[in-house]
Amino acid sequence: MNEIKEKLLKPSKETHQDQIGHLISLVCIGFIGILVVAILFFITTKGLATFTTNHVSVIDFFAKSDWSPSQKGPNGKPEVGALAMIVTSFAVTLLSAILATPFAIAMALFMTEIAPKRGQKILQPVIELLVGIPSVVYGFIGLMVLIPMVRTVFGGTGSGILPATIVLFVMVLPTITSMSVDALKAVPRDYRSAALSLGATRWQMMYKVVLRAATPGILTAMIFGMARAFGEALAVQMVIGNAVLMPTSLTSPTATLTSQLTTQMGNTIMGTLPNNALWTLALVLLVMSLVFNVIVKLIGKRSAFKK
Amino acid sequence: MKINAKKINKLAIGTIWALVSVVVLILIFLLGYILVTGLSDISWKFLTSTSSSISAGGGIRDQLFNSVYLLVLTIIISLPISLGAGIYLAEYAKDNWITTLIKTAIEVLSSLPSIVVGLFGYLILVIKFQLDYSILSGAIALTIFNLPLLTRSVEDSIEEVPKLQREAGLSLGLSKSKTIVGVVLPLAIPGIITGVILSSGRIFGEAAALIYTAGQSAPIVSYTDWNPFSPSSFLNPMRPAETLAVHIWKLNTEGIVPDAHIVSSGASAVLIIVILIFNLSSRFFGNWAYRKMTGTTRKKRG
To answer: What residues form the membrane-spanning segments (chain A) (predicted)?
Structure first.
């Protein structure tokens, strides 16, 4: 009798199995969590060293555009002003998103409203292929095709914000398109039927009803596109010209946060000011990536149609 | 008034057609440019000779191998972790603030610029853990870069398995973890395979995360030395390894090779062809695995 009682009261083999399974999956997810915390922690501490250890003024960093952290400037201190890179990063990001959005919306409307079956069949692979092309290949084509073109049309070296914008336009296009498609698909069919039954033309239906209803989703798509453009390193670095100067025109050589990081990180010594200043640039990138995430969350809260 | 609205309608739809055509033409131009300029540079010699850092006529043998080796190592490291994490999110996660926090963390990780991931890898793996520029550092950096996406595709594939299957497993008296491993996971495998192949394409073309982790040099290695601990072996994970994508970048920024653009266009074509194969095969293998596992063909997702 006691044996049976004991057996019934003790956890079964299945309970143990379940605990082990639960534990393993918990360890995996915990690993990812720790990883994210570690990235945030290490990049932040490394990035703040410029201000805490090297005593560079935060205001100078964000407001001045003279960047020569390895040499002493006129006032006897190295100059660490990242404004030129920050401005260029934002310029290429905004311009490419503004350029890409009309194309992305047209693609999305084509795939959902104008020719749903055929459009999907042709444009879905187009999007996937554009995503699939690696960024170095985009950069390489930019270098071989765009730069000579810009040079002949506008003169100068041919590198700068303009070619970078065009390269990024193609790179963010698939991101914005596929998310806009999701946003348009989330608009209930009744909205379309109601508009058409009131005598609206197809364009009136799309413009006055579907696009308005999908606006939060399309904004989210734009933000994701901008996040991708802001963080893109190699393709931009290959066409931007890599001179830390405030851009004077769309075709003057300049540098973004990412391009400066990729080209300089290997040329500086750990722990010195030129190196710490680069980590601060990485911190700015990280913070901006978080900001984009927060904006997406805020828009998501206002969105009418949840999945 | 009515005619006006119709005119605008025609104009607007015409504009949409035009914009869409431009995008399609851009893609055709991109692929055409890479394949037309690149295919003529690809030869058996190009694929099997070592690269050169000074003179013309270098090949891409080592870079191609390094890319493949890094890809395999990355998948070996990241797949088990993603499986565990995806299973947790799909099966165990309760609807509370901890789960929301974890999901946010994964979103943050997936939107981090790959150069930031690469620099984190440089700081932690290369400097702090003293792994130096090595295949191992590169594979771990790529794992960080790959984890959020693969986890999400595992989670989605598991969630698509009908609830009935789980109930059937549980009603047989199986434990929950046994049900997941024995019943749910086999049904989710086709989706997981598709996810793995698609992320392989991304990993294969990634360069920004590798510049400061796997390094920018491709030392001469012996392809007959199969001992992974021997320093000259091609399997040694502690040697620096420039991949194909990094090679293209390096040639075009710091390279002094006279035929840099020929080597890069050939290498770009190889890169694109491999990624095209990944993209095309992902669907094929997914459907094939589904047939094998269930004996039925896959329904199209609505």
So the answer is: 20-43, 82-110, 122-149, 161-184, 205-227, 277-299
